[in-house]
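Submission sheet (multi-component)
Chains listed below:
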Amino acid sequence: NAGVTQTPKFRILKIGQSMTLQCTQDMNHNYMYWYRQDPGMGLKLIYYSVGAGITDKGEVPNGYNVSRSTTEDFPLRLELAAPSQTSVYFCASTPGGVNYGYTFGSGTRLTVV
Amino acid sequence: ELKVEQNPLFLSMQEGKNYTIYCNYSTTSDRLYWYRQDPGKSLESLFVLLSNGAVKQEGRLMASLDTKARLSTLHITAAVHDLSATYFCAVDESYQLIWGAGTKLIIKP
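Outcome: structure written.
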């Protein structure tokens, strides 16, 4: 059982480039999330999805886009990368329900130069 | 605005001592999570607290939740070096986690 898998683990982008961070979960979880974590800070929600075909903005969505065409996959797209997007990005999922927890991926460390 | 405040943000302590990390929040949620994060690593789930008065213990760590006071505590008993990490609380607000800033805990031999 792989859980939540994120790729790549590390990436360096130049200002203005674009890229997609991949997130896949094999637990059939309905809810999926993208967070960013800046140094010494807690996590901030970028986008989330409550099921295939449904996405919504979180606290810090500017500069990002997402899609959820399947239950398993929730890619995060960065358009026109900026130095302010240098951060560690975590994908997470949960099944919801009464007694649920959240499973996190291993993270993607992104540097924009 | 939903807020989750942890204190202290930094804690340096000696092995064998006891201490408590506090997590105050401004929502009416009754679901709160504690996570541990080691440097450069992902988040490891420690506790899920689902109701008022919930208390959970694992080894030297014990977490509690008081929803009336909107307060959760993470108590460390007889600290050991291996517990050095950053600890986060997060409040679940309608399937969205609101995070505290984290408490960096350093335990010295």
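Remark: Chain B touches chain A at residues 4, 33, 41-43, 45, 48, 50, 88, 90, 95-97, 99-102, 104 (CB under 8 Å).
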